[in-house]
Write a structure and sequence with these properties.
The structure is a single chain. By secondary structure, this protein is mostly beta strands. It has a single domain, classed as TonB-dependent receptor, beta-barrel domain (Maltoporin, Chain A).
């Protein structure tokens, strides 16, 4: 078995070498370091002008990934592990960016932050997003807390939805079906009508799924855990004048499905309903050398879990949580002169949650745990400025953010990010940045909460380079990083009620590196990467333990898309995920288990049948690899999806 893995890894390694040796003969296309991104600086800037490496998942890549969920797609990016992405449809997933816990990665929708105020760590479930609603994605790795605030400790994932780009309305229909009785239908209407931009996207997904929990009983009678999703996205814009634009957006997703009782345990009547509602309105004033954006957004997440008492010792469980977050923000971008430009802003964020939970059985009369919305709330005001300097080959970002939290008072974070751009091809950079992350409402106010928790304070260090070896064709980048966190929050076992509680440890120290090679010409787009991360937690007693559970030290992969003919494309995704650890609970406490490494290979085929019609197919887990992501839960074997996409005016 080890020889088979070694051969696969060696084969893809040789393919990477082949790509690099053929690069000198490719024609120029898009200049990689001239790509314009907005997430790294909150204003449009070329990658050559900023001291970061930003990963972009383009609209074309998303169109070729319709057989995947959003977590599965993000799992193909260097430095990201989306644990549970290939579990049963609808089961929660955890994003680990550079090994950091989920709550340390900020999710944005069109630049607006989204969080779950009712969740354990505040992280947002990306199963809420259907891929066909998304235009492209920008991923900033490394601290973004100066420009984005509390949750951008490890990085930022900015999901940019589809919007009007040209005059006239264009419609689209897409139908797919495949393994696990999974069927999906979507429709879109996008375009500009005079001064009004319209983008409407609707999506429906149904899957009978498979048994989420691993069956070790030998009976084979675990039920299939299904998943159903209804999603809608509306983006509107109005050009009031050539200098003033109004915009509004609304995303709604309603998910229902089935759950197991837990790891290794079936449950015949455990169901859930989740509703994700996100809306925002904004205005943009275009100035002679900059612009002013003002945005207001409301983010609501409702979770309803219900387990009837017909099995598992007559257990009856009810959980109803609602989290609400209101964000108001103004962002000012301005070019001061040919050397300096500035990004400044002020933001106010109000969070509250209401929660109800009941656990009872035939032998245990339950008492409801209730948190009222007015009892679990906080707010934070912040003001920030980043100054960007550019002179010849030297670039520098100096930024600071003032935070005033309703519970923790004044906190300050900073960013220092110099870079050099040499010979119009080579960028070298370094970053020192700090981050402040407040405990979630759940960690403060739930039955396991601790009102005495301190916020986490992180200092991050990063250094690397981005080298365009052959202009517009072949590039290579490497980044080294280190994160030191004080007062890190962890889940502590107690000898008496409530038997567990959130507490502050002393330190969390993580470090690692990522390296990636990218190649493209008129027919081939390819990348190969390797990422490594390791970390240690020192608990409040000063004891060091390895706590990067479900996070591999090593991952590597390659993504290749090849136009065999003008109308026919083939894509291959490969990823190796190294050994991870997970916790299992026994009568004597907990035990650390090592989960074995695994390889996944996915295949995509697409044919342009007519000017308006594309047909495609995906074969995922081609090798039918048997592996475990979460101990006690099943993962997908070899599976397929077939679909068609039709565009019309």
């Amino acid at each position: 078995m080890e020889k088979k893995y070694a051969k696969i890894i060696l084969g893809f390694g040789l393919l990477t070498v082949g790509l690099s040796t053929s690069a000198a003969y490719a024609q120029d296309t898009t200049r990689t370091l001239n790509t314009v991104v907005v997430t790294a600086s909150r204003s449009p800037k070329k990658l050559s002008d900023i001291g970061r490496v930003v990963t972009i998942i383009s609209a074309d890549e998303i169109n070729k990934s319709q057989g995947k969920s959003l977590p599965q797609l993000l799992n193909t990016v260097a430095g990201i592990t989306f644990s549970g992405a290939n579990n049963a449809p609808g089961i929660s997933t955890s994003v680990f960016l550079r090994g950091a816990s989920s709550g340390n990665t900020l999710i944005l929708v069109d630049g607006f932050p989204v969080n779950n105020a009712s969740g354990i760590d505040g992280s947002y479930d990306l199963n809420a997003f259907s891929l066909d609603l998304i235009d492209h994605i920008e991923i900033l790795k490394g601290s973004g807390s100066t420009l984005y605030g509390s949750d951008a400790v490890a990085g930022v994932i900015n999901i940019i939805t589809k919007k009007a780009k040209q005059q006239g309305l264009t419609g689209g229909l897409q139908l797919t079906g495949g393994s696990y009785n999974t069927f999906k239908e979507s429709a879109s209407l996008i375009g500009q009508v005079k001064n009004t931009g319209i983008a409407i996207n609707l999506s429906n997904t149904d899957s009978k799924g498979f048994a989420a929990a691993t069956d070790t009983t030998g009976k084979g009678d675990f039920k299939k855990d299904g998943f159903h999703q209804r999603s809608a996205s509306v983006n509107l814009s109005q050009n009031v004048s050539s200098k003033f634009i109004l915009n509004g957006n609304l995303q709604v997703s309603h998910n229902t499905g089935d759950l197991p009782y837990g790891s290794f345990i079936n449950d015949n009547d455990y169901t859930y309903k989740n509703t994700f509602l996100f809306g925002g309105i904004g205005a943009k004033l275009i100035l002679p050398k900059g612009n002013l954006n003002v945005n207001l957004s409301q983010n609501t997440v409702q979770n309803d879990f219900n387990n009837l008492p017909s099995d598992n010792y007559g257990t009856h469980q009810v959980t109803k949580n609602t989290g609400r977050i209101t964000n108001v923000e103004a962002v000012f971008n301005y070019e001061l002169n040919k050397y300096f430009d500035i990004t400044s802003g002020a933001a106010f964020k109000y969070s509250n949650t209401s929660q109800y939970s009941l656990y009872e059985s035939t032998s245990y009369p339950g008492v409801p745990s209730i948190i009222k919305a007015g009892d679990a709330a906080n707010n934070i005001f912040s003001a920030y400025t980043s100054l960007f300097f550019k002179y010849d080959i030297f670039h520098m970002e100096l930024g600071g953010r003032y935070n005033n939290h309703s519970k923790y008072g004044d906190k300050f974070t900073y960013t220092i990010n110099p870079s050099l751009f040499l010979a119009d091809q080579f960028k070298i950079f370094g970053t020192i940045a700090s981050a402040f992350k407040s405990p979630s409402l759940y960690q403060l106010f739930s039955q396991y909460g601790n009102s005495k928790l301190n916020p986490e304070i992180t200092t991050s260090y990063e250094a690397g380079f981005d080298w365009e070896i052959v202009k517009n064709t072949l590039s290579f980048n490497t980044q080294f990083f280190k994160r030191n966190t004080k007062d890190v929050i962890y889940f502590k076992n107690l000898s008496g009620p409530p038997y567990s509680q959130y507490a502050n440890g002393q330190q969390q120290k993580d470090k690692g590196f990522e390296t990636e090679l990218k190649y493209h010409d008129n027919n081939i787009h390819a990348s190969a990467y390797y990422a490594y991360v390791t970390g240690k937690l020192t608990d409040e007693a000063g004891t060091q333990t390895g706590n990067l559970y479900r996070r591999p030290k090593s991952t590597l992969g390659t993504n290749i898309s090849y136009d065999i003919l003008n109308d026919f494309q083939v894509g291959v995704n490969y990823k190796y995920t190294g050994n991870r650890t997970d916790l299992t609970f026994t009568n004597n406490g907990s035990e650390v288990i090592t989960l074995k490494h695994y390889n996944l290979v996915d295949l995509h085929l697409e044919y342009k049948a007519t000017k308006n019609l594309n047909v495609f197919g995906d074969l995922n887990n081609v090798l039918d690899t048997k592996y475990v992501d979460w101990l006690g839960y099943n993962t997908r074997g070899i599976n397929f999806l077939l679909g068609a996409r039709y565009q019309f005016k």
